[in-house]
Amino acid sequence: MSKESQQIASQVDTKEVDDFLDSLDDILTEDVTAETESLKKEKKAAEQTLKVVEKKNGKTIVKTVHDWWGDYKKKTDKRKQQIAKLRQKREEEQLREKEIIKAEGVFKEGIASVKDLISPSAMMIEYDHLKVSGMYAQSFFVYSYPRYLQVGWLSPLVNSDITMDLSMYVYPVDVKGVMKQMKRKVVQLTSSVHISQEKGEVRDPEVENALSDIENLRDSIQRGEEKFFQMGIYFTIYHEDIAKIKQIARQVETALGGSLILTKRSYLRQEQAFTSCLPQATDEMNVVRNLNTGPVSTAFPFSSSELSDNTGILYGLNRHNDSLILFDRFKMENANMVVLASSGSGKSYAVKLEILRSIMLGSDVIIIDPENEYKELSDMLGGSYLRISLTSQQRINPFDLPRPIDESEEKPGALLRSAVITLSGLMELMLGKFTSKEAAIIDQSLLDTYAVKGITMDTVNPGEVNPPTMEDFYNVLSTTKGAEELAIRLRKYVDGTFGGIFNKPTNVNMGSGLMVFSVRDLDDSLRPIAMYIVLNYIWNTVRSDLKKRMLVIDEAWSIMQYEDSAKFLHGLIKRARKYYLGVTTITQNVEDFFASTYGKALVTNSSMQLLLKQSPAAVDKLKEVFKLTEGEVMTLLNSDVGQGIFFAGQKHVSIQVISSYGEHQIITTNPEEILKQQNQEDEE
User: Fold this and answer.
1) Other C-beta atoms within 10 Å of 289: how many?
2) Parallel, antiparallel, or unpaired: how do β-strands 608-612 and 337-340 relate?
3) Rounded-to-integer distance, Cα 445 and Cα 439, Å
4) By the 8 A CB rule, do 332 and 649 touch?
5) Distance in angstroms (rounded) separating the CA atoms of residues 592 and 559
6) How far apart are the C-alpha atoms of 508 and 536, rounded to whole Å?
7) Could you give the C-alpha distances from 64 to 19, 49, 415, in angstroms and in order?
8) If we measure between CA atoms, which residue out of 537, 602, 534 comes closest to residue 570?
9) Are 388 and 518 in contact (CB under 8 A)?
10) Cβ-based neighbour number of residue 478 at 10 Å
11) pLDDT for res 6
12) Residue 397 buriedness (CB in 10 A; 0-12 / 13-18 / 19+)
């Protein structure tokens, strides 16, 4: 195209040019990001190309490229069509998304959701209770609080073994409106006081206290120390028996009523109260009371127990708040302890740790060791390790008598009578059950055996006389009329297969520090007998010399399976406090332990209990005996090694047993670690 034809002068209506530029603006307002920048450039080029030359008779003369003008109009129309297609495509995509969402909704309706899993199968609503999937439920609300609230007043409710749901709703209140209301209340109370004074009436302490409380609260709010809230507390209790529900309800109302916190059953609103207690933050009851920051904070339900003292030893860490569990067992009403745990859960580790730390504080420790677990500890601490076996040179005479340290035992015949009762139990353990006649013969023969050595009911201090032995008892029994069969059954312990272990004078001297009696090398049938005799020897020594001591009985279930030995152990534990002795019984056979009639009695007479990881078969019995909650049961089932629940009197906490590196090297019972230590010693 020549220069002459490149630019021509044409007459175009002003309206046509304006419409063209407006159409570009309309296109630019469309939400098509990919095209926007291009159209902006096109419009700018058009504005530069369309140059006004002059205006005549309402028309504008423009100088433009004619071909460009027509092409640009076509291009603009094409862009409009593209935008229309994009708009249609977007609408189709939005419609498709709606169809997909609808299809997903239909699919989700056909699968199990969390609501399906947790929702009850059935629900019956009565005016004063609900029945939810076979469980009865009754809901309550708190409607009145006392003038002063103690910190942790909800703890007895939260820490009880009652199955319940508890919800607290706290609503902040605008301080400005509260201040106006309190100012109005102050004016009313002040006027009431002045009127009473003018009438000469006796002052009303209730009005004066209310006025003082409001003034103090106004000052605290003004200083920013307090804020104002409305609080509602609702709780629902559950049980399978409706009669038990009523009993629990009385207990709860009594417990809270003792703190002047008043509750009511949600009559005719059980469903709303039940829903308010669910973990979905819907307060359908809306029974609230006005409280400031201080009283609201006292209702904080998660107050964990602590077992920390200025004296004692470290048992472990409190898993609730990581505080130290420092405790002195000898400060309790008795110093006895029961350790119940499954195999490999860390019970021996925990007890060894206590032994090590107690010796550091000056306590003597005596251990009955059925599996040689305490040999390394004894060697490390320089203790005495005595092996009780048929070939051992150590002997303990079961007929030994203690020296009295108590006035009641100084009376003639007291020690002898106690020894005869103990030996009667030993003979029944050795010879089997007695008839009434045989029991009478054994009793008289024991008295005759002591009489042979000059010990009678009139002897003032029989502990200073050389006692008889099993052989002397056998000789008396052999010459007693009607005791021939008993003598035959006793003979194997004198000069038979088991001879030599129980029929010699005692040559063991119990010193201070640590002393371990090992019974591992004995036959299973002899082990309970040996443990009985060792216990009797220890008991005689304890009664002769008053010192701070600990007695550890590992695998105590082997003693508890026999009634006579269980009875003896029960009596020892009941009287141990009197002689400054703390007895620790350890067992992993929980069912066998509690199968004995004395199992629960031993727990009752022990101020401390340590429950570590338990097997599912044993946890039901522990739940019954220790009144554990469902949460505590799950803690015992899912605990790692060294974790469990530590009871001390009325308090109990979740514990993690911890040790230092040096302590761990001494007390570890892990076979792999022990073998590694032995290999290192051999290499050195």
Assistant:
1) 14
2) parallel
3) 10
4) yes
5) 10
6) 13
7) 17, 6, 135
8) 602
9) yes
10) 16
11) 35
12) buried
Q: How many CB atoms lie within 10 A of CB 669?
A: 16
Helix (H) or strand (E) holding 419: helix 414-431
Name the 3-class secondary structure at 411: coil
Which residue has tokens 């089997």?
Answer: 432
Token pair of 623, please? 């739940």
| Spatial distance between the Cα atoms of 195 and 201, rounded to a whole number of angstroms | 9
Q: Can you tell me which residue has the tokens 């939400």? A: 31
Q: What is the DSSP track for 572-627? A: HHHHGGGGTEEEEEEES-HHHHHHSTTHHHHHHT-SEEEEE---HHHHHHHHHHHT
Under 8 Å CB-to-CB from 519, ≥6 apart: which residues?
368, 369, 370, 388, 527, 530, 531, 534
- How far apart are the C-alpha atoms of 387 and 144, rounded to whole Å? 68
Length of the chain in residues, anyone?
684
Does residue 283 sit in helix, strand or coil? coil
Amino acid making up residue 196: S
Which segments within 303-393 are labelled E, that is strand?
Answer: 313-318, 324-327, 337-340, 364-369, 384-387
Which residue, 490, 506, 501, is CA-closest to 523?
Answer: 501
Q: What is the pTM of this model?
A: 0.58
- Compute the mean pLDDT over every residue in the chain, rounded to the nearest whole number: 81
Per-residue tokens: 314: 């470290």
The pLDDT confidence band at residue 23, using thresholds 50, 70 and 90, is low
Residue 502, classified by CB atoms within 10 Å of its CB into exposed (0-12), middle (13-18) or buried (19+), is buried
**CA 429, CA 391: separation in Å to the nearest integer?**
22
Reported as type and span, the H/E element at residue 636 is: helix 630-638
Q: Cα angle vertex 518, ends 513, 521, to 5°?
A: 165
SS3 call for 234: strand
Give dist(CA 91, CA 112) in Å, integer: 34
What tokens does 26 get? 């309309």
Angle between helices 436-452 and 484-491 (to 10 degrees): 70
> Exposed, middle or buried by CB within 10 Å (0-12, 13-18, 19+), for 128?
middle
Asked whether residue 124 carries a pLDDT value surpassing 60, the answer given is: yes
At 262-292, the pLDDT tens digits run 999 999 999 999 999 998 889 999 999 988 8
Please check whether residue 586 is in contact with residue 555, taking contact to mean a CB–CB distance below 8 angstroms.
yes
CA distance 572 to 565: 11
Q: Decide: 622 and 590 in contact? Cβ < 8 Å.
A: yes
The answer to whether the beta carbons of residues 141 and 232 sit under 8 Å apart is: yes
DSSP string, 291-328: EEHHHHHHT----------SSSEEEEEETTT--EEEE-
**Closest by Cα among 249, 94, 156 to 651:** 156
Q: What integer pLDDT is reported at residue 207 of this predicted model?
A: 81
Q: Which residues contact 305 (CB under 8 A, 6 or more apart)?
A: 159, 318, 320, 651, 652, 653
Torsion sign over Cα 15, 17, 23, 24: negative
Distance set, CA 11 to CA 49, 53, 366, 480 (Å): 15, 10, 123, 154
Helix then strand then coil, in percent of the chain rounded to 5, is 50, 20, 35
| HEC string for 466-522 | CCCCHHHHHHHHHCCCCCHHHHHHHHCCCCCCCCCCCCCCCCCCCCCCEEEEECCCC
The helix/strand/coil state of 288 is: coil
Dist. CA 321–CA 315, nearest whole Å: 15
Cα 120 to Cα 131, 138, 276, 573, 619, distances in angstroms: 10, 16, 16, 49, 27
Phi, psi at residue 8, to the nearest 5°? -130, 160
Question: Measured between alpha carbons, how far is residue 5 from residues 17, 62, 68, 252, 670 in Å?
Answer: 21, 15, 13, 105, 104
Query: What radius of gyration do the chain's Cα atoms show?
Result: 45
- pLDDT beyond 80 at 447: yes
